[in-house]
Each structure stands twice: as structure tokens, then as C-alpha cells.
Amino acid sequence: MPRSEKPTAATTDAHPAGRALRLGADLYAIQTQPGLEGIALEEAAARIPGARPLTDRVMPERSGLGIFTARCSPALLKLRCAEDLFAVMAYRRAIDGDLEAVRAAVRDTWHLEWALQARTRLMPGSRSGRRLRFRVVARMAGEHEFRRVDFKRAVDKGVIERADHAWHLDEERADLEIWATLIGDEFIAMLRLSDDRMRHREYKIADRPGSLRPAVAAALAWLSGPRDDDVVLDPACGIGTILIERAELGRYKLLLGGDHDSEALAAARLNVGPRYKPIELRVWDAVAMPLADRSVSAIVTNLPWGMKFGSHRDNRRLYPRLIEEFKRVLAPGGRMVMLTGERALMRELIADRAIAPERVLKVSILGAFAEIFVCRGQA
Ligand SMILES: C[S@@+](CC[C@H](N)C(=O)[O-])C[C@H]1O[C@@H](n2cnc3c(N)ncnc32)[C@H](O)[C@@H]1O
Fold this sequence. Notes:
It is built from ten helices and 17 strands. The protein is α/β, with parallel strands linked by helices. It folds into two domains: 12-197, 2-Layer Sandwich (VC0802-like); 214-376, Vaccinia Virus protein VP39 (Rossmann fold). The strands form three sheets. The chain has an eight-stranded mixed sheet with strand order 4-5-3-6-10-9-7-8. It has a seven-stranded mixed sheet with strand order 13-12-11-14-15-17-16. Helix 8 links the parallel strand 12 and strand 13. The radius of gyration is 23 Å and the shape is elongated. The structure holds S-adenosylmethionine. S-adenosylmethionine binds at residues 210-212, 236, 238-239, 241-242, 259-261, 264, 285-287, 302, 304-305, 309-310.
């Protein structure tokens, strides 16, 4: 039986590097790209009955974790801004460089049983019982005197030594995945409740280089503050990910997308299929779109970063023209959300008063630094 802890309600304490966790049943974590964990928590609070955001953590350039309490409900797996869902099962605020503390935290936690129950409820048909195969995904950020493989081994041993199950380490055919995260001196172990379907959405039949991760596309759409009567435009829609994710977030009046690359648009048509109506997809140059002045209520887009598409030099000419065109078609009070890696260029456009964002989020998308600019159309 676990030894040292007593079950408690999930609450938080003040902590200099983020709020410390107090383990309890119903403590979940959603994972996304770094910088988007706050948006993922906003979505959870709005869409999961009784969900209460607690805190977040960032593994620089790798992932962001939003931590919250909620009742166990299938809605958890329907969150669009998350790439993975976990049950938090073990925690140690300061391991003081001691892997023995990691091993003990996993061996002695009371919360694994709850995490297993959540997994069985959310993943019906998943293998359960006392004899399960597991694998550990170990991640470390910060300075440590031990190697990642030693950290992973400490977690492996902690699981194997538990008295309540007969666990078998099996990297290839695991029934359970335990994700062990060490950020500085803080250790969090989580049981994975999602599979790859949460990350790679089923609509994505056709893909192309540079297409956006669906959870990032959903976060952009979320930032536009979706409304039932929205006319939503993605002027450089590529394979259509942003428009599809916007449609999945809630009602709208019309989706509009275009791209100057007809192959990208053919891929978008495949991904959209017969769903997401009404939608209009057209080949166009986004600097001169066949749309009336003030005719869209939300523009949500991933601009060309000058890497896979165009060049930084081209973008210096392209961006001011794009922004002028976006402002022309955006209705008064409409929302404009733009993601780009062209941070210096965007700073210049802000200095020139071409845009006046009300919110700027620093993010890292698959390791590349970028920013999201949220603007409002002039009244
Ligand atoms: C960063 S990608 C966007 C990818 C998209 N969000 C997705 O998930 O597939 C930029 C897109 O802008 C398009 N593009 C670049 N310049 C354009 C222009 N002047 N007019 C229309 N589309 C343009 C590219 O063809 C590319 O599909």
C-alpha cells in the first residue's frame, strides 16, 4: 500500500516558480505547444462543466501544461486546444537533486488508482486490471547532475515497486504511458489519458509541409472569441486547418478561405469534405481578395513565415499589403488573429501603427519562436 501521503482535495499553494500543486483526485493536465497552455485552460474552463484552472508549467521549446480540476467527463477528450490529456498521479515540489525522491513519489502515491479509473472511463476498452504493461516518457528541463536515462530509470523502478499492481515495463507494447516531467527541481508524473487521435485530428486526410498543428489552429480560433453569427476568414488557409478547427469550436454564419496555391486549396477541399457548411474556398492573392469592404467579422490566419513559404525579404513587401487588405475586409469591431515567426517585422508594423494589437502571445511551435497578434477592427 502507498505509505507517506494522505488523499486531499486538489488545491494550490503559492510557489515562487508557479503555484505548487497539491495532489488530489480530479487533477488533470492538458498539453499543448509552449505559450498556448493559458488558452487551453481558458477553453477547458469554458467547455468542461465544473472545470477550474489551477496553474501551468512550460518545458521551454517543447510543451506547455495547463493544470486544472474537473469532474471526469468525455468532454475532456474533446478539448480542441489540447494535444494530450493526462491525470496527474504523483508530485514532488523539490526533489533536491535526489532521484530516490522521484522513485518514492511514484511508488507511494495514492493517486494512481484514481488516474487508472479516469483512464478506464475515458478510454473504454483500454486494458485494465492488476497486471499491466507500462512505459515511461521522461522529460527534463533545467540543470541536473543526472542524465535523463537515470531519471527515467528512477520512475520505472518506482512503478515496479508499487505494492498494489504487478507492473511490467514494456517499451513496445505498453498498455499505459506515464509521462514524467522534471522542470528544475519540481517533479510531476502523469498518466496519459489520450491517444494520438487527440493530436492528429481525423479530418486531416491531406497534409502539406508547413501545415499547422490542429491544436495550435484551435487556439488561434479560440482567441478570435467565436460568435454564432461569425463570418470567419482565413486569407492564406493552406490545407484548411484553422477554418476546420473554428468550425469545431462552435456555430458560425460562414467560413471563407483562400490561398494562392491551388494544390494547397485542393488539400483543403479534401479535408473539409462534405462537412463544415457553409464554406467557400477560392484560389486568390490575399493582398486583393474578392470580398466586400467590412464583410467579415473574424480573420484568423497563420501568415507565411518566410521559411517554407516565401522569404523574409518578400515578407517585408507582402505584410503591409496583407494588413491593409485585412483591415479593408474586417467589419468594425471585428477580431483579427495572426500567427507568425516574423517577430521583428511585426514590431516594425506596430511601430508604424499599421496594427495596434490588444494582445500579443509569445509561443514556440515545434521549437520555432513565434508570436500571436490579436487585433480589433476599428469601430
Ligand atoms: C504558413 S502557411 C499557412 C498554413 C495553414 N495554416 C495550414 O494549416 O495549412 C501560409 C500559406 O500562405 C499561402 N500564401 C502565401 N502568400 C500568399 C498570398 N499572397 N496569397 C494567398 N496565399 C498566400 C501559402 O501558399 C501557404 O499555404
